Amino acid sequence: MPDATSFNARTIAEFRANHGRVGAGFAGAPLLLLHTVGARSGAPRINPMMYLPDRGRFLVFASKAGSDRNPDWYYNLLAHPDARIEVGEEILTVHAEELHGAERDGFFAEQARRFPGFAAYQRKTDRIIPVVSLMPTGGPAVPRASDLPE
């Protein structure tokens, strides 16, 4: 099984080369690239992930494939909720906010209905998988480092 770093690097490259479309396990799924700042390190991080669109915001799911621990990007957003996402060819600034209660439950159920793997992830762990809203802020988006002239 490939490690997460090389898997993410290949997925990010494919996403960018194909205007936001990716094959294999992500084929046909809505995918974005989440840019965060490390909670402890302060280093930039990029994670590909599926999302559920909801009235202009992007809902992401901290499933970590059903691990008993939340993914690092979740902690990064708690520490630094202002982030960027790439969706298709757009780069947007967003503000992250965790959903709770019935709102969280309803959106998680919808994602699990659309993509049953999410239901399987929840069954694998005792933790409640967080749902995070990424709301575009309308602020200027900063280009990717790869888009900047050298």
Could you characterize what this model shows?
The chain contains 4 helices and 7 strands; from the N terminus they run αββββαββααβ. With 150 residues, the protein is α+β, with helices and mostly antiparallel strands. A 7-stranded antiparallel sheet has the order 2-1-5-6-7-4-3, with helices on both faces. Helix 3 (101-114) packs across helix 4 (117-124). The protein starts with a helix and ends in a 14-residue tail after the last strand.
Largest sheet: 7 strands, antiparallel
Strand order of the largest sheet: 2-1-5-6-7-4-3
Helix content: 25-40%
Identify the CATH architecture: Roll
Give the beta-strand count: 7
Q: Unreliable stretches, pLDDT < 50, 5 or more residues? A: 143-150
Number of domain modules: 1
Strand content: 25-35%
- Count helical runs: 4
Distance between the termini: 35 Å
Assign the CATH topology.
Pnp Oxidase, Chain A
CATH domain class: Mainly Beta
At a glance:
This protein is α+β, with helices and mostly antiparallel strands and 150 residues long. It is 29% helix and 29% strand. It contains 4 helices and 7 strands.
Secondary structure elements and their pairing?
Layout: H1 4-17, E1 31-37, E2 44-50, E3 52-54, E4 57-61, H2 72-79, E5 82-87, E6 90-99, H3 101-114, H4 117-124, E7 131-136
Antiparallel strand pairs: 1-2, 1-5, 3-4, 4-7, 5-6, 6-7
Helix pairs in contact: 3-4
Name the descriptors.
150 residues, alpha+beta, Pnp Oxidase, Chain A, 7-stranded antiparallel β-sheet, 4 helices, 29% helix
